[in-house]
Amino acid sequence: VTWTMAQRQRLALENQILQNEGFTQFGVFHHPADDTYSAGGTATTSVGRNYYVFCMIPPSYPTQRPSLYITDPNPLLNFNGVAISRLGVSHAMHTLEPNTLGWVQICHWRADRWHAGIVLQKVFLKAMLWLEAYEQHLATGRDLADFVRTMQEAA
Predict the structure, then answer these.
(1) Rounded CA gap, 40 and 1, in Å?
(2) How many Å apart are CA 1 and CA 23, to the nearest integer?
(3) Residues 14-23: contacts with CB within 8 Å, 24+ apart?
(4) Cα Rg of the chain, angstroms
(5) Rounded CA separation 51/65 (Å)
(6) At what angle do helices 5-20 and 120-140 cross, to 10 degrees?
(7) What whole-number distance in Å separates Cα of residue 68 and Cα of residue 24?
(8) Average pLDDT, the chain
(9) What's the pLDDT tens digit per position in 112-144?
(10) pTM for the whole thing?
(11) Coil, strand, or helix at residue 141?
(12) Rounded percentage of the chain residues whose pLDDT exceeds 90
């Protein structure tokens, strides 16, 4: 991967935005060994549970939507004790294809609605909303879709 200076500056700015907007539990990380970038951190929900949220920064960021995963706990279980990753793409749970390690991929933005003006802080905000909806799912057994609206419904 060859990152342009503009991409590197953007990712540095993304980290600054996270810190300035009070999302200090998240950060943008450069991995010099293979010159890749990721973002992530531990999110704590209102019921006090911790989840590790991991964002893989794609080579064509910011024009390409990054993937967003819950990596810990793994497996992430639904109300019935079934691994959410086994559901694959699920509107009811607002998930996309899981990765090969079984990490649940959160649907945070539709690929066709993603644009370079969206900052990672908004992605992590959606992760926090997803996690709060997940906590409600665990408490009630209702689908995440009952607690979060899709962008089309919100438009």
Answers:
(1) 20
(2) 28
(3) 14/39, 14/119, 14/120, 14/121, 15/39, 17/119, 17/120, 17/121, 18/120, 18/121, 18/124, 21/121, 23/121, 23/124, 23/125
(4) 15
(5) 21
(6) 50
(7) 18
(8) 93
(9) 999 999 999 999 999 999 999 999 999 999 999
(10) 0.93
(11) coil
(12) 87
